[in-house]
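Standup notes, structure subgroup. Blocker cleared on the shikimate-3-phosphate input:
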Amino acid sequence: MSTSVNHLKLIDFKYVKNIYSIKKPITSFNDSLEVEGDKSLSIRWALLASQATGKSKAINILKSEDVFNTLKCLKMLGVKIKFYKKICEIDGLGINGYRFKKNIILDAGNSGTLARLIMGLLIHTKNKIKILGDKSLSQRDFYRVITPLEKFGARFISKKGKLPIIIKGTKSPKSIEYRENLGSAQCKTAIMFAALNTKGTTTIKAKKSRNHTELLFKYLNIPIKIKKQKNYDLIKVKSVKKINSLNYKIPSDISSCAFFIVLTILAKNSKLRLTNVNINPSRIGIIKILKKMNAKIEFKNIKNYKGEKVADILVKSTKNLKPINCPTNLNSSAIDEFLVIFLIAAKANGVSNFKNLAELNQKESPRLQWGSKILKLLGIKTITNKNSIKIFGNPNLTVNKKIIIKNFSKDHRVFMTSVIAALAFGGSWYIHDKDSIKTSFPTFLKKIKILNK
Ligand code: S3P
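Run returned:
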């Protein structure tokens, strides 16, 4: 009896340690932060470096679980990777150069980007490779990559297009023509990666999404042509025999900065400079949306870095937040930021509308539903359906009650959004699954402590 009680206590203790509690709203701050490297660029750099000829080095690669899982998978494929000082070095094996044993299993953990992108590089594999992921990733759709990659000639075995998936490649992948209608950069990139190792030219008509892969291909002199159309890009990629190695200094992730941008706007008399942030135009939907809502945000020191735009972001507290009818053409460039953007709509003076957001429910958790749940707990009325949310803002919003956030499929962005809501609006919060931040932003809470003295 006593052993089982002790055992229970032990479990409870561990559990409590993974709950983050916040009891007071944040007071004013005036600081500068440098946030970790961009996740999309870190994963793309590692995957391309693994297929390059020679050694590539990256400074400021994001040290998070999604990126470490990428490096682990590459090691399983025979790639040599070293870390020294602030540098990650990858010794590329060349196009189609992976060396690995039969029946290997690649574990993508929580990372949809890793699982989908790596499939594009594996379409020519001789041996079967199994790709799996954690519980949340195993519920996400992979038909979006299986369908185009099968056109190249690769075979996939899956149950309903979900992980675990077995991939069996083809000796001679064909180039393809494909229309990508979801606006998924992961899907577009998987196709572009697959196109590197075919005979001929692959053409993708892709609904607009983040364009880091296109910029990296251009910088690496991989033959790529892009015709910009209104909502789509027409992308042509020719196969290559060799990819040059790539040294890269990865700029800060705007998706991680988003939490601090929103916190600063909602806090009283505060100011924050976020340095060296990637402000690629296909990623700054959040800035455009928040500026339309009256937020005080400026870019300083704008520079070009190997095709990417980088700047410092200066943000200040804003009192008179306006509601927004969010233009749907900004959706893809703010896709990872909507949860925190909804907190600004909660404090705006009127009703905001966000439409065509079905893709939000395809993320690590059904994020449109989670956005609506958090707002409801804050006492904000919403009308939410499968692909849209109407938010009835309250400029005097403050919270005095106890709020528990749990069972959110360990979605890192639900956790971080809840922390920002607690610090901005007050109340007594118990936010479960603190470890979820390890996937994209392990130092998030340390950075919060710098502002919340
Ligand atoms: C990513 C693309 C986006 C985004 C994800 C990272 C990428 O997903 O949500 O966090 O690095 O390509 P989609 O491809 O579904 O748009």
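Discussed briefly. The CA atoms of residues 206 and 233 lie 5 Å apart.
Next: hand off to the docking folks.
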